[in-house]
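PROTEIN DESIGN WORKSHEET
SECTION A - STRUCTURE
LENGTH: 164
TOKENS:
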């Protein structure tokens, strides 16, 4: 695991932080997992579903395929979402790895065509995940969870052997 490769750091930290949040959510009651907050998409369920949905949606765009049904339209447990995480993250990473980061991918939405570099999509998806996982930390804190999951790049670096 090369700690010096920004692409790998972004991808691995995004996966690790999202997994940590979902594992913390597995310990909650269904009522807590769906409790509405006035931030982000609204609940822990909706926020982590949105994180996974964004990764999957951007993977579809990078692959040049029609978008699948949005994950946000379903209701799943934290365990079910955790079971989906690795596959979604692997699919997103495969699309990032398939081309150079400066290659452009485009798609149409609402009658308008959008074009983005793969490096831009990588940066957006991973910082988007970090933004929402931090909202999840705030929600967990408000629910009284004492031991909050780690989710920052620095915390990830502290858990990784730098010479691997």
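SECTION B - SEQUENCE
RESIDUE ASSIGNMENT:
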């Amino acid at each position: 695991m090369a700690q010096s490769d920004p692409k790998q750091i972004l991808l691995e930290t995004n996966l690790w932080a999202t997994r940590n949040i979902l594992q913390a959510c597995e310990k909650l009651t269904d009522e807590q997992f769906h409790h509405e907050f006035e931030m982000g998409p609204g609940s822990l369920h909706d926020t982590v579903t949105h994180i996974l949905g964004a990764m999957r949606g951007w993977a579809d765009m990078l692959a040049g395929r029609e978008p699948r049904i949005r994950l946000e339209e379903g209701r799943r447990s934290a365990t079910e979402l955790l079971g989906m995480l690795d596959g979604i993250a692997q699919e997103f990473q495969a699309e990032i790895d398939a081309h150079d980061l400066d290659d452009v991918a485009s798609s149409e939405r609402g009658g308008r065509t959008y074009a983005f570099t793969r490096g831009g999509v990588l940066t957006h998806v991973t910082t988007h995940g970090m933004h929402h996982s931090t909202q999840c930390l705030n929600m967990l804190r408000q629910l009284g969870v004492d031991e909050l999951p780690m989710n920052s790049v620095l915390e990830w670096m502290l858990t990784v052997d730098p010479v691997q």
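SECTION C - NOTES
The two ends are 6 Å apart (CA to CA).
The helical segments are 6-25, 30-33, 44-63, 78-97, 118-142, 153-159.
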